[in-house]
Write a structure and sequence with these properties.
Layout (H helix, E strand, L loop, with lengths): L2 H20 L3 E5 L2 H11 L5 E4 L3 H5 L2 H5 L5 E2 L8 H9 L3 E4 L3 E3 L4 E5 L3 H7 L4 E7 L3 E2 L2 H19 L5 H5 L14 E5 L8 E6 L6
Parallel strand pairs: 1-10, 2-3, 2-4, 4-7, 5-8, 7-10
Antiparallel strand pairs: 5-6, 6-9
Length: about 210
């Protein structure tokens, strides 16, 4: 990565971290994927129950594979035949792994969800939430973060899942009410009621969508 981009990301990350702290959340900066994985595992004590929502970023740094080891109690939502049972098990987990569709420079997290399993666990339930996010997710303000979530993350995810939505065909949000829409719930996390619950690792890389 270009040294100028690296320096810019380091400085921007410190601004985001200060914003997160002002919102009762904890932020960290990792210079690369390997450092991000090491940092994430240092925050999750062995023996913890761990589950996750849709989080390509956590996969990309190797975190999901790491917590599937015998050192942790990984709650695999795909192993449940019943969606509600999966959700209830996730609510009781020690750690919930996720990413953000976008975030602002002053520390607001933006997420869009289809079934609400991810956004509901970010909002409440699991004891701790660990967000893995590349610096590509950082936006200037809430308006630009919402636009990123709707016009970048949502269309790519709709295409990834093979959904029949207008955005999957056009690559941009059409504000649809399609039966396949994944833009059912919008979660804006501007403050965490509980200190030490939401932890955000910013990674000097392009991760996720």
């Amino acid at each position: 990565m270009n040294n100028n981009i690296v320096k810019r990301n380091e400085l921007l990350a410190q601004t985001v971290i200060k914003g997160l702290e002002s919102r009762n959340m904890t932020g960290y900066y990792a210079a690369n994927r390997e450092e991000a994985l090491k940092l994430a595992l240092s925050l999750i004590p062995k023996g913890s129950s761990v589950t996750m929502g849709g989080a390509m970023s956590a996969h990309e740094i190797g975190l999901v594979e790491a917590v599937k080891s015998p050192d942790y109690n990984f709650i695999d939502r795909d192993a449940f035949a019943d969606r509600r049972a999966s959700l209830l098990a996730s609510y009781d987990a020690d750690f919930f792994l996720t990413s953000a569709n976008a975030m602002t420079e002053d520390g607001i997290l933006v997420n869009i969800d289809g079934y609400a399993n991810r956004v509901s666990c970010i909002a409440n339930g699991p004891k701790k939430v660990l967000v893995i996010a590349g610096m590509n997710k950082v936006c200037k303000d809430l308006d630009s973060a919402m636009k990123r979530a709707r016009n970048v993350a949502a269309p790519i995810n709709a295409q990834r899942f093979g959904l029949n939505t207008p955005c999957a065909k056009t690559g941009a949000c059409m504000d649809c009410k399609s039966p396949d829409t994944i833009c059912c719930q919008f979660l804006i996390t501007r403050y965490s009621r509980h200190a030490d619950r939401i932890h955000v690792i910013l990674v000097n890389d392009n991760l996720g969508f």
